[in-house]
Design brief:
By secondary structure, the chain is mostly beta strands. It has helices at residues 120-133, 139-143, 160-165, and strands at 16-21, 24-30, 35-43, 52-63, 66-72, 78-84, 89-95, 101-110, 144-150, 173-182, 185-193, 200-209, 212-222.
């Protein structure tokens, strides 16, 4: 069995592994020791093939190259792993949303050179930059999915309006100052130029499903200069 080779200063972060648990097969990327993104290659009837999610993890090294790793998924499922990277062995306990406990055992193999699944934060920031700042409508095929539910009161649901409007924007810039991600939701707090006649401060909330944006809410305010705010604080 091929064993992943570890370097003392670079153990897991930024590396992608295939977790092969028989009928269940997962591509798993450690974004950090507190966050990971997984792609379901084969869901074994427990989850849809192709499903992507970024989760907060608790990964603790119990002896050299052996980790106890646990997380909770958006579905409510909880997962606990014993990951032996030294010997390429994986033991997994999964508690499904209906309370059933599934015990699995399999192997770990590094997938060097694989394209890493993007986190939800990265999907949103990349999507907004490519569609609105670059005017690249092909981004809709990469990062959005129909049916697209739009809660902004001036825009209909569906991707048609985005496809029409994005290429016409002139001098548009989107500068996120805060990005918060929890489960399938990403919230951005941004300064936007070119959406209206004056700069605007916008809070956007995106819901993602299987790595695509499927729903959107926003709160829009015209920017007021710091010298004119009652508090003396900036809006951003």
């Amino acid at each position: 069995m091929e064993k992943p080779a570890f370097q003392p200063a670079d153990r897991l972060v930024g590396r992608t592994f295939k977790f092969d648990l028989g009928a269940l097969s997962v591509r798993y990327t450690f974004n950090s020791l507190t966050e990971a993104t997984f792609l379901i290659l084969s869901g074994a009837g427990m989850v849809e093939d192709g499903y992507v999610e970024t989760v907060q993890i608790d990964a603790r090294e119990v002896r050299p190259n052996v980790f106890v790793n646990s997380w909770r998924e958006a579905s409510g499922a909880t997962v606990s792993h014993l990951e032996d990277f030294e010997n390429g062995i994986l033991l997994s306990n999964v508690t499904l949303p209906d309370g059933r406990l599934v015990r699995l055992a399999g192997t770990i193999k590094e997938e060097s050179g694989r394209h890493l699944p993007l986190s939800n934060k990265a999907i949103v920031t990349t999507a907004m930059h490519e569609l609105f700042e670059k005017g690249d409508v092909s981004a809709l095929e990469r990062y959005w999915r129909e049916p697209y539910i739009q809660h902004s009161p001036q825009m209909p649901s569906g991707l048609g309006t985005l496809r029409t409007v994005a290429p016409t924007l002139e001098g548009f810039s989107w500068t996120p100052h805060r990005i918060v991600s929890e489960g399938d939701l990403v919230m951005t707090h941004s300064r936007v130029m070119g959406w209206g006649p004056k700069p605007q401060i916008i809070v956007d909330v995106f819901r993602l499903q299987h790595g695509r944006i499927v729903e959107h809410w926003d709160v829009v305010q015209e920017e007021i200069l710091i010298t004119e705010t009652v508090s003396g604080e900036s809006m951003i």
